[in-house]
């Protein structure tokens, strides 16, 4: 890969130049496939004073799509990522640690883990770890914790891989201004192809010991008269079959997911980012955190300030780079925080009030149930969920609940679920001039509609099975895991904070490309929605703003 320093700035490239460059590299222009996938490795980091045509903040879904489509069109892209590049093994020979033996690699700059299921039998279950730039961040706000991936690949490194297209009627409800024909005919299929989504073989699923928990969860839902669906995943199911057969090293079957997967997962570093890297036009500056973006004093474009971190989280250098165009792909929280700060501190004063508004948690709430001894969920559990309980059409409380693993390595008779509900509450980000940080105004009581919708599903299952909730997993006598979120969405909603394609019109050359565009809810696990919207938006931006 080439760097994107001053020698490759390529500023002012015409559309024709892009196309001819693109044609020259035709061999690497195909959509990313598993065949093209090599791990995306960062080229040299940006240097202080560099000038680049395009800088993308963050290497999650929105950022990765943007980087691929621009580099394919011949535009050099410099990505800046606050987390590390997860390519080097630790002393145990593995890149990532697993959930049963977490070490510093698990969490972003913490001395103790902060697990979503943080209690067991009522006692705290977290462990001491060394402070390190680990892969999972749990960012604490006053009344909620937001889990996010940190590293080259963003959330794709830590998530459950569930690749779910939202229900069309609900997508049309949340984003009525977006042409849904184009989304469902073109951009959702394009996103799924780029992400490497695949489906479990249902015959294998029916007998695989590692999906006992999902079969139990589905059959209990059916007993209660509820509908279940299979959901695609980006984890390679052929690989998982080899894991179970004993012919490949275990990952999903070895308790690996929220602290990263050593094998099997087609995370963005192996799909979109690898394909972008293959163009030779991508550089990634890992362990660099963007701290400010504002119009450049001379020569046009934007000044981007960043801090280079070491793996202890210490700032080892500060750099200032100029970019003609900047794409914010730092995630719902990261992008909203940056832009709210820039507006409040007078560096992007004309940003509209809608920047920082409309944040939601996708109605997330987690819950566990205790099964009887005759309904074991299995001591070996695949960490990639493939089944959901679909009660979205219940007008009194729409709910789509993923049947989640509880990979303890021993039989616990626990059924765990992450429910996605239609919660109408929306919070705002605000700059705190006392701390210099950004607050999120979500209130604890705002999860009540989510609990009510989830209860409509799980009370029914408990009643059909004669079972009860576990009250020991999220605190002492606490049934609902409602103080954290896996699916932060919104903060800079499409068509409100931006135009209909993610442009910030007050600042030509600034764009938003991540989950902050989605208005707080998408009714299913969100990364396919984020990816497809990014595909749609960059196509329009490439056609109109790079001419
Ligand atoms: P994201 O992937 O978060 O990427 C943003 C990137 O920007 C990150 O790499 C950050 O480190 C980086 N960044 C932030 N601030 C800065 C800065 N100032 N300077 C430089 N870099 C910065 O954003 N979704 C599903 O659809 N299916 C699932 O099964 C699923 N499971 C999940 C499980 C867990 C444990 C978690 C935490 C999330 C899960 N999600 C799932 C949610 C999904 O990962 C999330 O919606 C996407 O990752 C969001 O994509 P973005 O592009 O918005």
Helix/strand-derived class? alpha+beta
User: Under the CATH scheme, which architecture of the largest domain would be assigned?
Assistant: 3-Layer(bba) Sandwich
- Termini separation: 25 Å
What is the fold named in CATH at topology level of the largest domain? FAD/NAD(P)-binding domain
> CATH superfamily membership of the largest domain, which one?
FAD/NAD(P)-binding domain
Shape: globular
Hetero ligands: flavin-N7 protonated-adenine dinucleotide
Please tally the helical runs, counting DSSP H or I stretches of 4 or more residues: 11
What would you note in describing this structure?
This protein is 24% helix and 20% strand. It is of the alpha+beta class. It has two domains: 222 residues, FAD/NAD(P)-binding domain (3-Layer(bba) Sandwich), CATH 3.50.50.60; 195 residues, Cholesterol Oxidase, domain 2 (2-Layer Sandwich), CATH 3.30.410.10. The strands form six sheets. Strands 1, 2, 8, 9, 10, 11 and 23 form a seven-stranded mixed β-sheet that branches. Helix 2 runs parallel beside helix 11. The longest helix has 19 residues. It is globular. It starts with 14 loop residues before the first helix and ends with a helix. Flavin-N7 protonated-adenine dinucleotide binds next to helix 2, strand 2, strand 6, strand 9 and helix 9.
């Amino acid at each position: 890969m080439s760097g994107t320093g001053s020698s490759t700035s390529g500023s002012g490239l015409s559309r024709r130049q892009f196309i001819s460059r693109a044609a020259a590299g035709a061999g690497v222009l195909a959509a990313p496939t598993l065949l093209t996938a090599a791990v995306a490795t960062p080229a040299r980091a940006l240097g202080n004073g560099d000038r680049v045509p395009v800088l993308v903040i963050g290497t999650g879904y929105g950022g990765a799509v943007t980087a691929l489509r621009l580099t394919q069109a011949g535009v050099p892209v410099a990505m800046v990522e606050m987390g590390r590049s997860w390519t080097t093994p630790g002393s145990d020979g593995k890149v990532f640690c697993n959930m049963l033996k977490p070490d510093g690699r698990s969490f972003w700059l913490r001395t103790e883990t902060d697990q979503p299921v943080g209690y067991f039998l009522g006692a705290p279950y977290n462990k001491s770890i060394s402070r390190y730039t680990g892969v999972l961040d749990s960012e604490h706000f006053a009344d909620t914790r937001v889990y996010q991936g940190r590293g080259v690949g963003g959330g794709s490194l830590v998530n459950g891989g569930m690749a779910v297209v939202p229900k069309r009627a609900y997508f049309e409800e949340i984003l009525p201004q977006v042409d849904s024909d184009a989304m469902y005919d073109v951009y959702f299929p394009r996103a799924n192809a780029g992400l490497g989504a695949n489906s479990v073989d249902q015959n294998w699923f029916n007998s695989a010991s590692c999906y006992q928990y999902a079969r139990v969860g589905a059959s209990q839902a059916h007993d209660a008269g509820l509908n279940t669906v299979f959901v695609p995943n980006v984890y390679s199911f052929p690989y998982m079959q080899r894991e179970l057969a004993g012919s490949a090293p275990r990952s999903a079957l070895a308790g690996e997911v929220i602290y990263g997967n050593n094998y099997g997962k087609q995370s963005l570093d192996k799909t979109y980012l690898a394909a972008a890297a293959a163009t030779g036009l991508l550089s990634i500056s890992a362990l660099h955190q963007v701290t400010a973006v504002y119009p450049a004093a001379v020569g046009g474009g934007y000044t981007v300030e960043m801090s280079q971190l070491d793996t202890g989280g210490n700032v080892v250098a500060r750099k200032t780079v100029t970019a003609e165009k900047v794409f914010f792909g730092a995630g719902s929280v990261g992008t909203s925080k940056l832009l709210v700060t820039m507006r409040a501190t007078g560096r992007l004063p004309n940003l509209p009030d809608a920047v920082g508004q409309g944040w939601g948690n996708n109605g997330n709430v987690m819950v566990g149930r205790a099964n009887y001894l005759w309904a074991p969920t299995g001591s070996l559990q695949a960490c990639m969920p493939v089944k959901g309980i679909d009660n979205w059409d219940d007008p009194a409380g729409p709910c789509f609940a993923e049947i989640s693993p509880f990979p303890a390595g021993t039989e616990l008779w626990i059924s765990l679920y992450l429910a996605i509900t239609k919660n109408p509450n929306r919070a705002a980000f605000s700059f705190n001039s006392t701390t210099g940080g950004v607050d999120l105004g979500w209130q604890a009581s705002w999860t009540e509609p989510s609990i009510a919708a989830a209860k409509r599903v799980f009370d029914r299952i408990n009643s059909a099975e004669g079972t009860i909730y576990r009250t020991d997993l999220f605190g002492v006598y606490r049934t609902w895991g409602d103080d954290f979120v896996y699916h932060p969405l919104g903060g800079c909603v499409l068509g409100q904070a931006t135009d209909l394609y993610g442009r910030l019109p007050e600042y030509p050359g600034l764009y938003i490309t991540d989950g902050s565009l989605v208005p707080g809810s998408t009714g299913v696990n969100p990364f396919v929605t984020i990816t497809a919207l990014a595909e749609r938006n960059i196509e329009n931006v490439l056609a109109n703003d790079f001419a």
